[in-house]
Amino acid sequence: MTTAPDGPLPDTWFPRDLPVLRAIARLVDGPEYGGNPYLGQVVPASGLSKPDVVAAARALQSAGYVEALTNYAGEIVRFTGISPEARRLAGLWPTPQEQWARLLEQVATRMANAPTDVERERWRALGEAASAVGPDSGALLMSALVGGYVPRAR
């Protein structure tokens, strides 16, 4: 795909960089390669060509998402780690928005399976209150809970 010289560049995140990040994350997080996979192991795990993986790896390293060892020519040889943000982007760690959605799903399930009308009504009221709070405030709440932050009493 060609772009006009003065136009925006094509997206590389979704078709190239994110699949490579997910492959690296799986391999770094797994025990198969001691948490330090070689570039040659990432290529088949990503499903992309070697030139695409090399380009994505450089972009991910420069953005601080992956830590890599290079050879004397500066070429990436092995991956030694990923950042916390990369873990979230790859899906290894939950985002606050995902945790909020999971909480709402649990409330709905518990309401549907409540053994009594009284208990069902309590779960329904909690679900309505949580929905009224909204996803933005809910994500902030989940961020505080996952992160261990407890606000001080005034």
Calculate the terminal CA-CA distance, rounded to whole Å: 58 Å
CATH architecture tag of the largest domain = Orthogonal Bundle
Q: Which shape, going by the Cα principal axes?
A: elongated
The biggest beta sheet reads: 2 strands, antiparallel
Number of separate strands = 2
Helix-strand topology string: HHHEEHHHH
Helix content bin: 55-70%
What is the quaternary state of this protein? single chain
CATH homolog superfamily of the largest domain: Winged helix-like DNA-binding domain superfamily/Winged helix DNA-binding domain
Q: Which keywords apply here?
A:
single chain; mainly alpha; Arc Repressor Mutant, subunit A; 2 domains; 7 helices; 2 strands; elongated
Describe the structure.
It is a single chain. By secondary structure, this protein is mostly helical. The protein folds into 2 domains: 13-90, Arc Repressor Mutant, subunit A (Orthogonal Bundle), CATH 1.10.10; 96-147. It is built from 7 helices and 2 strands, in the order αααββαααα. It has helices spanning 13-29, 39-46, 50-62, 84-90, 96-112, 117-133, 135-147; strands at 66-70, 76-82. The chain has a two-stranded antiparallel sheet with strand order 1-2. Strand 1 and strand 2 form a beta hairpin. Helix 1 (13-29) crosses helix 3 (50-62). It is elongated. 16% of the residues are buried.
Structure summary:
By secondary structure, this protein is mainly α. Helix 1 (13-29) crosses helix 4, helix 5 packs antiparallel against helix 6 and helix 5 crosses helix 7. It is built from 7 helices and 2 strands, in the order αααββαααα.
